[in-house]
Amino acid sequence: MRDGAQEEYVEYVAARVPALRRLAYVLTGDGYRADDLVQQTITTLYLKWHRARAADNLDAYVRTMLVRGYVDERRLAWSRVRLFRQIPEPEPVEDTGAEERHVVRAALRRVPRQQRAVLVLRFFYDLPVDEVAGLLGCTTGTVKSHTSRGLAALRRLLPPRIEVPNR
Amino acid sequence: MNPLKSLDDEPDTPSTVDIDRAISTARRRRRLRRGAVVTGVAVVTVAASATASLLPGSGLPQVTATNTAVPADKASPVPAPTTAVPGPAACKLTRLPVPDGEPMALVTGADPTGRWIAGRTYPTSGGYQAVIWRDGKVSKVEMPGDLEEALRDVNTSGLAVGWSYSEAGPVPYAYRDGRTTKLAAAGSANAVNDAGQIVGDDNAGHGLFWPSADAKPKRLPTPAGAKQAQARAIDEDGTVAGSLDLARPYLWLPDGTHRELPMPEIDGKPAKIAQAFDIRNGWVTGMASAAGHKDRENRSSEPVYAARWDLRTGKAELVGELQYPADAVNAHGWQVGNDAKGYAVLVTGDDVVRLPGLGRNRPDGTATIASTLSDDGRIIAGQSDDKSGTIQAVIWNCR
Fold first, then answer.
1. Rounded to whole angstroms, how far apart are CA atoms B240 and B219?
2. Which candidate from B1, B29, B324 shows the least CB-CB separation from A82?
3. What is the CA radius of gyration of chain B?
4. Please, what's the largest Cα pairwise distance for chain A?
5. Rounded to whole angstroms, how far apart are CA atoms A108 and A92?
6. Would you call B300 an interface residue with chain A, using a CB distance cutoff of 8 Å?
7. Which pLDDT score, from 0 to 100, does residue B5 have?
8. What is the distance between the alpha carbons of residues B323 and B347, in angstroms, rounded to a whole number?
9. Which end of chain A is less crowded, N or C, counting CB atoms within 10 A of the terminal residue's CB?
10. If you count residue pairs, one on A and one on B, with CB atoms under 8 Å apart, how many are there?
11. Which chain A residues are Cβ-neighbours of B6 within 8 angstroms?
12. Residues in chain B closer than 8 A to A156 (CB atoms)
């Protein structure tokens, strides 16, 4: 890349890596998988940098890339069939009065992937239903059904002391 | 307060994200993509013909073989290898039909003849629909639960196995002639052989073996020190292939014994980790890497190699023709996978046959994936992104 674009890319990515790792960590529930997802996202971002840097909201653009990468059926089929990125599952966390976030993370890990992505976007990033639908490339109806199923799953998995939102 | 808000922390593992590596990987991909554009026109006509000597494997380590740490088991009932069978020279691509004009579909498994193919479609209304094709005719498979479902394998009598998500996690099922059988309270069924023996897992780290779809599962034994076992595939004689802790390639033999497979060599050194994913007629395919799961520095930069074991000779080798581990192996030891340029290929004894796709190739090997391979090498099924980038279930007829 010429015209300073590469420096711009490096500067932007270096500043955003912590935020991207947080997002990837909420989604994947695992540090290694999170880093793989971030690495994949910033690699693709480099290839699309000229288009991306012109985006109205670059952070949202990159977040969309990462979340789509996470729920992408192509990647899913690929990782499921090829399994080569798979690493041992972390041990499930019991409710031994552990810190709330550990318990929540463990519960979230057991929610199917699409639902997990919807829950994270709606309740971690506070995005409205239509925005989540646009981001994931599905209908608002699908977002709503994933939300209610995902919340139901969390309610079942989390100890009563942790309150789950209704909708 | 909303509990998800408590998750605002970075992973507690040190970061392995590397901007320089992202840039170099991206540049390599761009180069490959440009290369693909240049040859794009030629591909249309050449794609369906044999392309032997496709790639000298630039950057690949020497494909050394022969780790004889574990000698061949002479008492093994595995039949002699059928060598010198010529492979097909060209493959023709056709889309598989889907019910109700559903927009997206993919293939998840097939029987050794290729007459039965399992897969799933993605109805417009959302969710997933498991399907089976018999001689190219599709029918829906109604599985309990409506979260997510997949059939993973099917045998020559049409017995299919898979899993469906319940609110509590995956549940293993068998399916035949419109009838679904719940195989256990929790877990997944991954593979079935023509004798109707099934392997899978209990979703709690144990491998399971079902003598038949009507029988209770038995837990596969593991040696001391292994935390988890993965049972991936089963051969006709009942040999189960998989791994321990996703790191050691492992076999469970029909006589009840079990043993580790030898590590293939990478650049003259035994691989740090390897896993077996598929088995057929004594041929086992899987992955190998020089970086272990805990090698934080190079875990995501070390390549993952395709590996193949021959249980008759005990030989383990890397498969230089493939960019990733093979997606399937057949009775001749032929494999399907993706080559270094991302194209789906059939690797036979001597030839590499490129499989045409519906749309444009991608160097990362996600545009077209061959998921199954018949014993005669004539029927391959898988998925290919169409021109709009949507995944479609496809079949290749080779001759």
1. 12
2. B324
3. 21
4. 56
5. 11
6. yes
7. 79
8. 12
9. C
10. 154
11. 100-101, 104
12. 167-168
DSSP output for A35-54: HHHHHHHHHHHHHTHHHHTT
Contact list in B for residue A87 (CB cut-off 8 A) is 246, 293
Which residues in chain A are closer than 8 Å to B23, comparing Cβ atoms? 6, 9-10, 46
**In B, which residues are within 8 Å of A138 by CB distance?**
126
Answer for the pair A74, A54: CB distance below 8 angstroms, yes or no. Answer: no
Q: Testing the interface with A: which of B1, B5, B6 to mutate, by most A Cβ within 10 A?
A: B6
- What value of ipTM does the predicted structure carry? 0.77
Closest to B193 in 3D by CA, of B242, B155, B152: B155
What is the DSSP code (8-state) at residue B349? Answer: S
The answer to whether B205 contacts A17, with C-beta atoms less than 8 Å apart, is no
d(C-alpha A18, C-alpha B333), whole Å:
45
- Give SS3 for B332: coil
Contact B304 A89 (CB under 8 A): no
Range list for CATH 1.10.1740.10 in chain A: 1-90
AA letter at B393 = A
Note the pLDDT tens digit of each residue in B334-368: 999 999 998 999 999 889 999 999 999 988 788 89
Q: Which residue out of B5, B12, B18, B19 would a mutagenesis test of the A interface target, given it has the greatest number of A Cβ atoms within 10 Å? A: B19
Selected residue with higher pLDDT from B42 and B261: B261
Q: How many residues does chain B have?
A: 399
* Residue-wise pLDDT tens digits, B80-90: 444 567 889 99
Cβ atoms of B324 and B337 within 8 Å: the answer is: yes
Q: Which residue of A has its CA nearest to B305?
A: A84
Is residue B391 less than 8 Å (CB to CB) from chain A?
yes
Q: Evaluate the CA torsion angle B35, B356, B378, B288 in order and state its sign.
A: positive
Q: Based on the number of CB atoms within 10 Å of its own CB, is A90 exposed (0-12), middle (13-18) or buried (19 or more)?
A: middle
Choosing among A6, A16, A22, A35, which should be mutated to test the B contact, i.e. which has the most B CBs within 10 A? A35
- CATH of segment(s) A94-162: 1.10.10.10
Topology of domain A1-90 in CATH is Rna Polymerase Sigma Factor; Chain: A (1.10.1740)
Closest CA to B246 of B278, B285, B189, B293: B293
A165 to chain B: closest CA residue = B2
- Nearest by Cα to B187 from B230, B223, B224: B230
**Exposed, middle or buried: residue B313 (CB in 10 Å: 0-12, 13-18, 19+)?**
middle
Which pTM does this prediction carry?
A: 0.70
